[in-house]
Specification:
about 450 residues, Pilus assembly protein, about 30% helix, 29 strands, alpha/beta, single chain
Length: about 450
């Protein structure tokens, strides 16, 4: 009897242990399931936040792209997306769009339409400042701590100066573009002040003067290789000025007429701007005197207040007078490479073309480069493609893209730079774009 009771107790105990073990295992399984459910819920929530932030960044990008500016109303996106806590368009090098929700942030960098390389003046032409050079810089790349890698001039080959060279540095009252922070300055390594030239390369120039032997101004500005200039010339946004130019893009450049100096280019440019054009391509040489520049200034004020890009192609370019031109001046010569990989231009300056600018302008140029005794024995009138007599100041910058010739500035230069005046016209040709590799999801 006792043995039977013992067997029953053992059976009951074993059954209880088995049931308890099964219960423990079941609880463990349920716990794992609950954990997995919680993990899945967290993942869903994280993914939801991620895509809200992605949407916020894309919304901010669409605002920037539409305005072609970093000055936008981010609250438009914040109001449309309730789970987007904040959206900020941060101006810098590079510009960034940052979307935030709690501890989650997505940041992407972008570049507005416009050129890539820094420089208030950019040149594949040789450059001669016959009266010194003073300029406010392009801030270039941020070095942190309110310091910038400022750039005054980016040039490919030769630079000669007679007189002082001064970087006016970054000044709050003369910002290089809208939204630029206050209290900024150039790095000491990128700040030239007091260098003196004697018809040569001034000793003491710092890194705000960059010699870039591979620089290609055309591709830098338009985002198109130099050899494809005909595509840019016949972009529908450009108004073309020139005698007998084809209305539609020809098959190749040989179908274009020979470029010629135009005595009416000033009035033609004025008329183009008055008709609402802010991208103007002049085919042939041009002289813009004080009255022509005044008329062009007035046309811009009345019909292209955001600024213009004026390109002069395959001809000399000459200016006289003191004017602040609201736009960029681009001087360009096309050409091709021969079998020896030498660049053969489609146009070279002639003495007769320079005489077409008028007796005074021609005499002044001769007095700078061909007078006796000669300070520039390697430079004559026919080596000059651009000549400026007076304080002409294109706010959007100069691009002198006429290799193996000289851009000559007779008077002392005092140059103010503001890239905002080319953002509008250039935005028609180049769109705001993401910077590859800038994705930063935290």
């Amino acid at each position: 009897m006792n043995k039977m009771k013992q067997k029953g107790a053992i059976s009951l105990l074993v059954t209880s242990v088995l049931l308890l073990s099964a219960l423990i295992v079941s609880f463990g399984m349920y716990r794992g399931v609950f954990h997995q459910i919680k993990v899945a819920q967290n993942e869903v929530k994280a993914k939801k936040v991620h895509w809200v932030l992605e949407g916020g960044v894309e919304c901010g990008f669409s605002l920037v792209n539409e305005a072609n500016s970093t000055t936008v109303n981010e609250s438009v996106c914040e109001g449309a997306m309730s789970e987007l806590e904040s959206l900020d368009v941060v101006v810098g090098i590079p510009n960034k769009i940052i979307a935030t929700n709690g501890n989650s942030t997505i940041s992407k960098a972008f570049k507005l339409s416009g050129s890539s390389a820094s420089g208030a003046m950019k040149s594949s032409s040789n450059v001669y400042f016959a009266g010194g050079y003073s300029a406010y810089p392009d801030p270039g790349v941020s070095a942190g701590g309110n310091k910038w890698e400022c750039t005054i001039l980016r040039y490919r080959d030769k630079l000669k100066v007679f007189g002082a060279v001064v970087n006016q540095t970054l000044v709050d009252s003369v910002p290089p573009y809208n939204g630029f922070p206050t209290g900024q300055s150039c790095l000491n390594s990128h700040y030239t002040s007091g260098a003196i030239g004697n018809h040569d390369l001034p000793p003491g120039l710092k890194s705000d003067f960059i010699k870039d032997s591979t620089f290609e101004p055309f591709e830098d500005l338009f985002g198109t290789p130099r050899e494809q200039w005909l595509d840019v010339m016949y972009d529908s946004n450009f108004d073309r000025i020139g005698t007998s130019l084809p209305a539609s893009k020809p098959d190749n450049k040989n179908d274009l007429p020979v470029a010629a100096f135009s005595a009416s280019c000033g009035s033609d440019i004025e008329a183009s701007i008055t008709n609402g054009n802010d991208l103007i391509w002049v085919y042939g040489g041009c002289h813009l005197d004080d009255s022509a520049l005044t008329a062009i200034d007035n046309a811009i004020a009345g019909h292209a207040s955001d600024g213009v890009i004026l390109l002069i192609h395959n001809g000399i370019l000459s200016t006289s007078g003191s004017h602040e031109f609201k736009g960029m001046l681009y001087h360009f010569v096309s050409g091709s490479m021969n079998s020896s990989l030498e660049y053969i231009p489609d146009y070279t300056p002639s003495d007769s073309d320079w005489q077409s600018t008028g007796t005074v302008q021609y005499s002044n140029l001769v007095g700078v480069v061909d007078h006796t005794p000669s300070h520039l024995p390697d430079v004559s009138v026919t080596d000059v493609s651009y000549y400026q007599d007076g304080a002409f100041n294109p706010l959007g910058g100069y691009v002198m893209d006429f290799p193996d010739t000289y851009a000559v500035f007779r008077s002392s230069m005092s140059f103010t730079y503001n890239k905002d005046v080319i953002d509008g016209p250039l935005g028609k040709l180049r769109k705001t774009r993401w910077i590859e590799g800038s994705w930063n999801d935290l």
